## 1
Amino acid sequence: MRYKVTIAYDGTNFAGFQRQPNQRTVESELTKVVNKMAKHPEPAIEVYGSGRTDAGVHALGQVVHFDMPFNLPPDNMRKGLNSMLPMDMEVLAVAQVDETFHARYSVSGKRYLYRMDLGEFRNPFKRNYTGHWKFPVDVDRINEAAKDLIGEHDFTSFVASGSGARTNFRTIYEAGCHLDEANNELVFEFYGNGFLYNQVRIMVGVLVEIGAGTRPVDGIQQLYKLNDRRYARRTVPASGLYLKHVYYEGDDPAHPTKLPKHQR
Amino acid sequence: MRYKVTIAYDGTNFAGFQRQPNQRTVESELTKVVNKMAKHPEPAIEVYGSGRTDAGVHALGQVVHFDMPFNLPPDNMRKGLNSMLPMDMEVLAVAQVDETFHARYSVSGKRYLYRMDLGEFRNPFKRNYTGHWKFPVDVDRINEAAKDLIGEHDFTSFVASGSGARTNFRTIYEAGCHLDEANNELVFEFYGNGFLYNQVRIMVGVLVEIGAGTRPVDGIQQLYKLNDRRYARRTVPASGLYLKHVYYEGDDPAHPTKLPKHQR
């Protein structure tokens, strides 16, 4: 019986999503709990995520799947997992899915948030939950520039080395930011069919520089032409990044299909 | 030269305010930095706080004082301290004061906040920053009951053992709560001339039970009559508590004077 599980986690105390020896990761905590619930079967049950998140990156709606040797009502599964998982993880939803569903290979899109604190001083309560930008920014200018991210583009200028992707072409459906006045934060939001390694953090770095006026408003277009990561410079900190939602084939009628195989 | 320093800290990774052997505390981090700035004088410089906060309790405006062997403009002192303090502490303000000022003995009042998350499920991002209450509460009923806290009372029913105070009489000037709808939290606020050990956390425990209807609306009056800590039962978690402001003699014209000596 295959379960699709949506989880939130505070990435602060994780060495990222992916299992690594002698490190506390999201995948290893989940794998431990799932195998304990199933009374340690041989071979052990594997947990598959929609993709990795780096150390310090948070999730409001990461998705994983795994196969259990028993049939449990989804809400019981949710409660059971939550009773065993550490306090910095929380299962939000559980669904039973058929064997064609794969948390990674069935992804049709992802939505990320980036929270950038605009306070003059660093805020000890936000250090793990936001990036920090203390120069004046023009939100309209950022949103004007962000339009150039929409559509299918070669994001070679926006990918960190070590990405391992077969191609740097990706399609972005939504990109922009708004000012959260109550929290004095700039909140960026991106929705696309997939994102390259560090792509969101590099895009935010370029956009805040455009907003501050240290890059021209057509800075995104320039980077497409240069096609070289070195010109994007700034990668904003992991602490402000949130994986907000993972879309699967058919979830979003406007963008129903997954990333072509050669792009994954 | 005496400096009055206002600091914020995220209490999550501190074993409280007060220095303790082999523990990371707010006082020990400050003492370390202050003595380093002064090039390790003998005897070492002492840092005096307005009072202790427990492990996990946060501060939006804790106050300390210390004497430095040199005269530095307050803003340079602020920047210097911040450049050396860890990221979960932040100096908000520095003032030079005369030698009659004492961070603890000159206190005329304190203001505390308590943030109570009302989400149905635990929220991994709030576990260190709020308490959690998942039953329906009536905010008006809480505020009706909280009026009984105002004034001078014997708070024996609201003090944890080990308080060490000479008397349990304290005066509360303001007490109440409001619903923070954006964050789905109940935010309690208390202002008084001083608070006993765990008093705020015990008062919040009583007030949420009144709000949930498991205690009568005159539950505070009942506790005054019983005059016994065992009837208050619940002490809500340290994670939701914030020392918001420390008032000194003359800071608040409505309540200018400090706690009488026999009550400290």
## 2
Amino acid sequence: MERLSLNQMTTKHWSLAEAVDGCVRAGLGSIGLWREPVAETGLAAAAKLVADAGLRVSSLCRGGFLTAEEPGARAEALADNRRAIDEAAALGAPCLVMVVGGLPAGSKDLPGARARVLDALGELAPYAGERGVRLALEPLHPMYCADRAVLSTLRQALDWAERFPAGQVGVVVDTFHLWWDPEAIGQIARAGDRIASYQVCDFLTPLPADVLLGRGMMGEGHVDFRPFTEAVLAAGYTGDIEVELFNAEVWATPGDEVLATMKQRYLELVV
Amino acid sequence: MERLSLNQMTTKHWSLAEAVDGCVRAGLGSIGLWREPVAETGLAAAAKLVADAGLRVSSLCRGGFLTAEEPGARAEALADNRRAIDEAAALGAPCLVMVVGGLPAGSKDLPGARARVLDALGELAPYAGERGVRLALEPLHPMYCADRAVLSTLRQALDWAERFPAGQVGVVVDTFHLWWDPEAIGQIARAGDRIASYQVCDFLTPLPADVLLGRGMMGEGHVDFRPFTEAVLAAGYTGDIEVELFNAEVWATPGDEVLATMKQRYLELVV
């Protein structure tokens, strides 16, 4: 239970202070933060809140969106990512989760978009490394390739990460995004110490009308979690195990209930 | 234009006879058939209709659904696939498109489901080969892994197909399912004469509430078709190029209009 982390998006209706209190009440060791609620609280106040509660920060969501072609938009994206890295450092987050971005509006040039992400990582990786923050490349489910992330598989994420020192660029293993991939388990073994974050979440069918909200509580969908956990641990991962759901029904449930279910399912299905 | 084929699902509102007439009016050389409308017309009558019109049959949809665990359900699936192979042979279809099936209800054993598909292919492949029909394994977009097909990438399809003689088992290259895959173009080169069918279709966002209906007319979505066509032709594919859309708006459009748009987009974007 000490490694279980609440990604604060799972209890979206809670403020940061409420989420921190909820984690403490539930006996969790860690919390995954998002930039927007941290900004609402104020960066220094947020860092103090979490530290005073004795919680670790498992990750900060999110940087990325690095596919813009237009020089001004690209410069703004790089500047925003540097700010996100600074925030991760101030919060003591070991990694910044990177959702790399989809195709620019109207573009069909997928290889071009991918090349621009790699190019931007070349600028951001040393900046992150110098501040003790790892960029955690998150392969997203292929259904988000057009509008969210042109990075879709763990193999592809590792091909990119391995161009940089392991201390600068790692990967996220998220069961929702990877569960279908026949290569996932093998690529987790390849990843070794590149695994910067392990996130658990179930894949629901039918997908809801907003496909971003198909991220369900463990046990509600199709994912067999234990092979993923075993592979991640066998690869040497010693970090936290984060539960990140985007789910209208979960968001309508009182936070303490969500955490109680999450703990139960974690013990039953994940570890 | 001689290689352009109408998959009859694109004009779902047309009967088989209407679709055949529409193809002839539009100057197409080929049609892709589905079992249900063929059965409505009668197998022999359908074969005669198409042959009398001077059209080739580019493919028959579909066999598959081979993941059942229960022996009775499994035997029925095998028997149904043998009937589908017989139908493809009677229609002169060079291949039977195989949608392999998703997880059985309540099961989370993805490796088990995949193993059962492979096992079933071992029974069906020689039967198909003896009748001059190729089983065309179709990797489906990963968003359908749970409920439609535990076969998700071209690499995985080729890993399976290569266990059998090339005359017995090939693969389908469908741009809707594969466009996101950073390995797709490379795997098409690997596929060579394993390519049994090439289907073009665009990927729309936002996905409609029924994600099966996100298959759009070329030019309406995110797919860059030419690199796929070039790779398929460079791999040595000499068969037809089939347009298969599942799309409520297209289905509400008069068939002759759909074919006119399809021809125009084919010339502008595909070849």
